[in-house]
Specification:
Layout (H helix, E strand, L loop, with lengths): L8 E7 L3 E7 L31 H13 L6 E5 L10 H11 L3 E6 L7 H7 L4 E4 L6 H8 L7 H14 L3 E8 L7 H14 L3 E6 L14 H11 L3 E3 L15 H9 L4 E2 H8 L3 H13 L3 E6 L2 E6 L1
Parallel strand pairs: 2-3, 3-4, 4-5, 5-6, 6-7, 7-8
Antiparallel strand pairs: 1-2, 9-11, 10-11
The protein binds iron/sulfur cluster.
Iron/sulfur cluster binds next to loops.
């Protein structure tokens, strides 16, 4: 990915759920209504619920059109990135215009906080897949795990999700990220289960802290614990733990720039880079070493794995 040519795009990155996902980032780093303890982008300096346009819609659409012309494999065009994408008020128009431009499916990863607003529900209704998060079913757990903007309430977010389900014809894959000792108690899981029953998602994706979190105290659940919780949520639930390896068809020409483009968005391990760029570790290692020496990236150890982050 050429960052100068495509400043609002990243990847295609291997997504656990969306195959080769071309990311569209509609936000300045890091713009979010939450400051989750597990966030891989670090703490949110100041949470916000104010929707703005931020960037030119025309430019974003031109970038997508030009990128698709390169013939790189893209399974999904996904709104995600440096915070909460629904904080960009262009999102509805952009989804509709992309749908006119290409047959590739459009997905939105959202923290669900703005789904209590009718206009946001209407805007997201044009997508094919919405992956909303819901980690908390009580105000106490919500404050602890998601550290929200003061105006937000878990109860209203759940109501927003219930209303969105009634309006939206596409797929809803509800993601629940579980943090040890914060939202995994049987009593809280029961409340989450009640909320899920009302929301009626098509799938329930169970996740845990697999990348370096904003707070060191955010610890993951073990695979055994996650599988036990999966049983509790029933047949729609699955543990989204590791990416299924797929072949990338087009290798990038400028490897260092491609690595930087991915690392800038999220911490990645060597295996992620191999999958994402369709290169072997031998092909990557020289550029990684150079970027480390130039202090453009740094290495962070988390759960016995090395991740690369911006330095
Ligand atoms: S994990 Fe998502 S919702 Fe939570 S703070 Fe980070 S960007 Fe915002």
């Amino acid at each position: 990915m050429n960052e100068k040519k495509f400043p609002h795009l990243y990847g295609p990155v291997p997504s656990r759920r969306l195959g080769y996902s071309l990311g569209v980032d509609l936000l300045p780093f890091k713009t979010c209504s939450l400051s989750c303890v597990y966030c891989q982008l670090g703490r949110t300096k100041k949470t916000t619920i104010r929707r703005r346009q931020f960037f030119s819609e025309k430019q974003i659409l031109e970038e997508i059109r030009d990128f698709l012309k390169t013939g790189t494999r893209v399974d999904f065009i996904t709104f995600s990135g440096s915070g909460e994408p629904t904080l960009n008020k262009s999102i509805g128009r952009l989804i509709r215009k992309i749908k006119k431009m290409t047959g590739i499916q459009v997905a939105v990863l959202t923290n669900s906080t703005l789904l209590s607003r009718p206009e946001v529900r209407k805007e997201l209704a044009a997508a094919d897949v919405v992956v909303p998060s819901l980690d908390a079913a009580t105000e106490k757990v919500f404050k602890k795990i998601n550290r929200p903007h003061p105006s937000l309430q878990a109860r209203k977010i759940i109501e927003g999700l219930v209303k969105f389900r009634r309006q939206f014809r596409g797929q809803i894959w509800l993601e629940i990220l579980l943090v040890k000792g914060i939202n995994d108690s049987p009593a809280h899981l029961k409340k989450l289960g009640d909320a899920v029953e009302r929301i009626k998602p098509d799938k329930i994706h169970l996740n845990t802290v697999v990348r370096p979190p904003a707070e060191k105290m955010a610890k993951p659940l073990s695979p055994v614990e996650l599988n036990r919780i999966k049983e509790f949520f029933g047949e729609k639930a699955e543990v989204v733990a590791s990416f299924r390896k797929k072949e990338q068809e087009t290798a990038p020409k400028n490897i260092s720039q491609a690595i930087l483009s991915i690392v800038r968005r999220r911490p990645v391990c060597l295996e992620d880079l191999e999958h994402s760029l369709g290169l072997t570790r031998e092909e990557l290692i020289l550029d990684i070493q150079r970027l480390l020496e130039q202090k453009k990236i740094k290495m962070v150890r988390h759960l016995e794995r090395d991740y690369f982050e911006p330095a």
